[in-house]
Amino acid sequence: MEDSTPVTRALAGLNIPHRLFRHPGPVHSVEQAARERGQEPEQVVRSIVFRLAQDNFAMVLIAGTLQVSWPALRSFLGQSRLTMASEDQVLSTTGYPVGAVSPFGLPAPMRILVDQSVLLHAETSIGSGERYATVILRTEDLLKALGPVEIGAFA
User: Rounded distance, CA 133 to CA 37, Å?
Assistant: First the structure.
C-alpha cells in the first residue's frame, strides 16, 4: 500500500495539512467509518455527485448520515430536474469510484456545494480517492483548500 492517494497528493500540492487513514478492512456504514477513525458520524463528509444535465454535474458535500433534500437542492440550483450520477458517471467525472469520491484531484472543474452541516465540527474526514482510506483534516483547512464554494442548506 502506498502512503499517499490522489487526494493526499492534491492537498500536499496546496500545502494543506492532513493525514491519511486506512481502514483495516471494508467499510459498510458511516457509523463504522467514524468509529474506526475516532470520529463522530457527523465528521464523516460524503461527496455525492448529481447529474444536472448532459455532461453537467455538481458535487454536494454533506455530513454523516444526513440525506440531501431534493427540493432544497433543486431550488438552490434553480433546476426542476436532476438525478444522482450513476456509478459510471461518478467514475468518469471524478476519476474516483463510489465510496472514495473527493472534491480534490478532479480531472475537470466541477461545481462544489457544501452543506452547512459540514461546518459544525473542527475536524472532518473526506474521500481519499481510494476505497477504505480517508483524509482527515481541519474543517477550516478543507474550506481553504476548496477555495470559493457555495455553502447552503441541502439536508
Answer: 10
Cα–Cα–Cα angle for 43, 21, 98, nearest 5°? 70
Residue-wise pLDDT tens digits, 15-29:
999 999 999 999 999
Domains and CATH numbers, the chain: 6-152 (3.90.960.10)
Which residue matches cell numbers 434553480?
A: 78
pTM over 0.90: yes
Distance between CA 96 and CA 106 in Å, rounded? 8
